[in-house]
Amino acid sequence: MLVAEIMNRSVISCAPEESVSHASRLMAAYNVGSLPVCAPNGRLRGIVTDRDIVLRCVSQGTDPETTPISEIMTRAVTSVTPGEEVSEAAGKMGKSRVRRLPVVKEGKVVGMLSLCDISRRPSCDMEAAKAFSEVSANVLRK
């Protein structure tokens, strides 16, 4: 099964210069835990997660209203393409210890793939279980 078959095509993103508060409001409004950070042309520049907001901004005493997302986002983003196999994507999630991956085509974000998306497919049970196990095991080792 290909990533394109199960990815979420409704991508909510933010720009690097927008505030951390803006990103957190988007996450709350759309009930998501991460946002791809994109340039105006749609090219992926990074990713910001709810965890980034807490650990890199709030817990540091930095003002979320004035802090740009570019200061707390993760720049080295693991991503997948629509044509990749779901099993490859699940492997990347486990190796990178992430639950969500931007789906990128020709440098532009065209979707998001979550561990939850994979686990909802009965034919992907093994991939989802393995990725979840790897993500969780790596988190527990910290």
Topology:
Elements: H1 3-6, H2 20-30, E1 34-38, E2 44-49, H3 50-56, H4 86-96, E3 100-105, E4 108-114, H5 115-119, H6 125-141
Antiparallel strand pairs: 1-2, 3-4
Helix pairs in contact: 4-6
Tell me briefly what this model is.
The protein has helices at 3-6, 20-30, 50-56, 86-96, 115-119, 125-141; strands spanning 34-38, 44-49, 100-105, 108-114.
Question: Can you give keywords for this protein?
Answer:
39% helix, alpha+beta, 17% strand, disordered C terminus, two-stranded antiparallel ribbon, single chain
Distance between the termini: 33 Å
In the CATH hierarchy, the third-tier topology is known as CBS-domain
Order of helices and strands: HHEEHHEEHH
Total helical segments: 6
Please state the CA-atom Rg, rounded to the nearest Å.
Answer: 15 Å
**Beta-strand proportion:** 15-25%
* CATH class category: Alpha Beta
Number of domains: 1
Global outline: globular
Helix content: 25-40%
User: Given the helix and strand composition, which structural class is it?
Assistant: alpha+beta
CATH superfamily name? CBS-domain
Low-pLDDT residue spans: 138-142
Mean pLDDT: 88
The tally of strands reads 4
Enumerate the strands of the largest sheet in spatial order, edge to edge or round the barrel. Answer: 1-2
- Largest sheet: number of strands, sense, barrel closure: 2 strands, antiparallel
CATH architecture: Roll
